[in-house]
Amino acid sequence: MKTVKLIQGKQNGENVIIVSFYANETLENHLMQLKELNRDNSSGKFYIKDTGQNLSLVFNHMCKINCYVDYTELKQKQNDKPKKKVKLYLPPIDSLNKQNLDKFRRWLEEKRLSPNTVDTYVEVTSFFLRYTILRNSRNYSKRLVESFNYEFIVREGKSISYQNQCINGKKKYFSFKGIDIGALNLSRPKKEKKLPVVLSKAEVRSIIDATHNLKHKTLLSLIYSGGLRIGEAMNLRIDDIDSRRMLIHIKGGKGKKYRYT
Known about the structure:
Oligomer: single chain
CATH architecture of the largest domain: Orthogonal Bundle
Helix content: 40-55%
Distance between the termini: 83 Å
CATH class of the largest domain: Mainly Alpha
């Protein structure tokens, strides 16, 4: 049986299907009858624009003379192409859920959580409530929560840290609504534990020496020597510096903890 092989190639920067075969006058004459096919003048190869419709066109044309069409390599390359992600569209929040979110925000503020934490919990809870509207469900079941976690977080490629933030936000919202959290069994995924990248003393010295603005140099030196987070450095006041004992008093750091460094 006569055989042609379809492979993927490039022609003038465009993806094409190349019809490859051993020299055969019958095949060549038959291919020339397909007007959609082009032929490269230098190599003599037949090619056509790489589309599903053109693939069927070539396949059906060659079947007319009982020719076997091998397109396994072409099919494999098409399967290897990354599939386009379908972004989840969440409808706008309705008035009832908007009122609940406003009350939820005030409830969080009464718990004296940091403004950043309040904003994060309200934002991720808003996404979840919009998802419940999409699924037309007012029942906060375990299955609904798991479906949200997969469709909005896992399938969208969001990080484990973001997933944990969403779980924390939903847990707070369920507590606010008086829903039994234990029955939902919301478990957090484990984060991978990476070894920290530690700069050498020479590298740190190079960074500080390359900084010519005195304020910036002071800030970098302070953060490095005291082990401060950037937010802690920004919140420092003059009376937090004990020059006599060479100590810095960090007030209300992460987790509302106070410490000396």
